[in-house]
Design a protein that fits this description.
The protein is mainly α and 133 residues long. The chain contains six helices and three strands; from the N terminus they run βααββαααα.
Length: 133
């Protein structure tokens, strides 16, 4: 497996994304995605390609992303492509509808209704007033 020392495998053996994927039971693209998100070691670039040690891959196999407290979510720079409005947007629309019907909810009422902090309730009111215009 080690291109530098055929027949010798140790914890420092360098693996390609294909080899790492075989050990982890995932596609090579998944290996690269996990590394980009910080869900596993980033590896090191050698010859323009990422390489991981056997030890890193075995550790990741034994401690998968769902068990990893460093999970970071989307890679930096990526944007949500969802067309579904966010929870905050839906709540602001509900409050805007209340404002349009003549109701004047207070920050305390919004905190109770939505189980949010005072600051979040204030932000929702500001957003709703912008929608109700």
């Amino acid at each position: 497996m080690n291109p530098n020392h055929p027949g010798k495998e140790g914890p420092e053996t360098l693996l390609t994304d294909i080899q790492a994927g075989e050990i982890l039971g995932v596609d090579p693209a998944t290996v690269r995605s996990y590394a980009a998100r910080g869900q596993m070691p980033r590896g090191r670039k050698i010859g323009g390609k990422r390489r991981w040690t056997l030890q890193e891959i075995e550790h990741h196999r034994d401690h998968p992303p769902r068990d990893n407290p460093r999970r970071l979510g989307r890679p930096p720079g990526s944007k949500s492509k969802s067309t579904v409005p966010s929870l905050a947007a839906r709540r602001a629309e509900e409050i805007a509808a209340r404002l349009a019907n003549g109701d004047t909810p207070t920050t305390a009422q919004i905190m109770t209704d939505y189980q949010v902090t005072e600051r979040t309730a204030q932000r929702l009111l500001v957003r709703a007033r912008g929608i109700a215009g």
